[in-house]
Amino acid sequence: MDLLAVSGSPSSPSKTVLALDVASRRAAEHDDVHVDLLDLREQELVFSDGRDPADYTGTTRDAIDRVVAADALLVGTPMYRGGYTGRLKNLFDVLPNDALAGKPVGLVATGGTDHHYLALEHELKPLIGFFRAWAVPGAVYANNTHFSEGELVDDGVRARLRDLADAVVGFARGMPAGAGAAAPDIPRKSATEA
Ligand SMILES: Cc1cc2nc3c(=O)[nH]c(=O)nc-3n(C[C@H](O)[C@H](O)[C@H](O)COP(=O)(O)O)c2cc1C
């Protein structure tokens, strides 16, 4: 099973990447689970311009292909202005509509405080729903007090991240065929079309 962890943080170092790392390491302890990180602070994706996703090239093409190839995902983002980052939004804007259909997704968010905890419910879950993917119960939110000296030190958050990883792997293994029903076709411009 290929599990892709996606970080929408533009920062280095990144608390979101630290949190994803805890979940990723746990997922990798399962038999036959290969975990990879798509770190959007390193990947310079072009800005979505509404073209057909098939027409993107280079780094953007590579990012799209990695998401499409994944069996399951962990998606993490810092809270920016009460929601997910522009970088993460842009990744979702360049994906084909069926890129995530039927796949389990574990959600992780970090914020300065707990004020925007519910953005997991109101921002990220609808996004996952649009793609007809499964937002696995147990999304994890960490605030700045959970980190110290470049580490995620809160035992409760670390335990929840490991539980989330277990749940995502379990969902992916038990997912029935056709779990992501076909969506209506949304036409896109091709690169040669005005
Ligand atoms: C532009 C910007 C906007 C932010 N907006 C919020 C916010 O609305 N709510 C919040 O809790 N934290 C906010 N923060 C704090 C970050 O979400 C928080 O420090 C996060 O853990 C950073 O994650 P990172 O290190 O992975 O980038 C903001 C930070 C920046 C730079």
Describe the structure.
Keywords: Flavoprotein, FMN, Oxidoreductase. Pfam families: FMN_red. By secondary structure, this protein is of the alpha/beta class. It has one domain: Flavodoxin domain (Rossmann fold). Helix content is 35%, strand content 19%. The protein contains 5 helices and 8 strands. Strands 1, 2, 3, 4, 5 and 6 form a 6-stranded parallel beta sheet that branches. Strands 7-8 form a two-stranded antiparallel ribbon. The mean pLDDT is 94. Bound molecules: flavin mononucleotide.
CATH superfamily annotation = Flavodoxin domain
CATH top level class name: Alpha Beta
Number of domains: 1
Based on CA atoms alone, the radius of gyration comes out at 16 Å
Question: How would you name the oligomeric state of the polypeptide chains in this document?
Answer: single chain
Q: Portion of residues in helices?
A: 25-40%
Write the CATH fold name. Answer: Rossmann fold
